[in-house]
Amino acid sequence: MLSKPKSRKVAALIAFMGTILPVSGFHKFYLGQPLWGLMYLLLFWTPIPRIASAIEFVWYLGQNQDEFDRNFNGGALRVNSSVSTQPTAIDPAKVGEVADALRQLDKLRQEGLVSE
Fold first, then answer.
1. Which residues belong to the signal peptide in this entry (predicted)?
2. How far apart are CA 62 and CA 67, in angstroms?
3. DSSP annotation of 2
4. Tally of CB atoms within 10 A around 14
5. Measured at the alpha carbon of residue 63, what is the angle toward residues 79 and 56, in degrees to the nearest 5?
6. Quick one: DSSP state of residue 47?
7. How crowded is the C-beta side of 87, counted as CA atoms within 13 Å?
8. What distance in Å separates the CA atoms of residue 22 and residue 43, rounded to the nearest whole number?
9. Could you identify which of 46, 73, 101, 111 might form a hypothetical disulfide with 5, taking C-beta atoms 3.0 to 4.6 angstroms apart as the criterion?
10. Domain locations in the chain?
11. Residue 59 above 90 pLDDT?
């Protein structure tokens, strides 16, 4: 299932809210970690989730966007608007070299020197 990439600032804001509100852990649900979110909710009566939320708030703000994407967006790459979407030029000489190498491999396969 495809979903929108998670925002570092939104995750940090939700984690910060977990330090001042009576319940914590909603940032874990937002980041797609429901088991951790459930643990935070089950421990709501202790200071552990609030302290962890405060630490994660600082951690999220301390990361740059690329690190956050690697950790929470499955390594999603950010799209840079200055990058051209034009395909790169194909070098005909390289195409010819690849075609020759494939022909040689096929010839070796037909001669029985290389197995499939």
1. none
2. 10
3. -
4. 23
5. 125
6. S
7. 3
8. 11
9. 73
10. 8-72
11. yes
- Residue 91 pLDDT grade (very low, low, confident, very high; cuts 50, 70, 90): confident
Nearest by Cα to 60 from 2, 10, 99:
10
Using CA atoms, how far residue 37 sits from 56, 70, 111, 116, in Å, is: 13, 20, 61, 50
Which residue from 86, 85, 68 is spatially nearest to 77, judged by alpha carbons?
68
Give 54-98 as a DSSP string: HHHHHHHHHS-HHHHHHHHSTTPPPPPTTS--SPPPP-HHHHHHH
Q: What is d(CA 68, CA 27) in angstroms, rounded to the nearest whole number?
A: 14
> What is the C-alpha to C-alpha distance for residues 6 and 90, in angstroms, rounded to an integer?
36
> What number of residues does the chain have?
116
Amino acid at 11: A
Is the entire prediction scored with pTM above 0.70? no
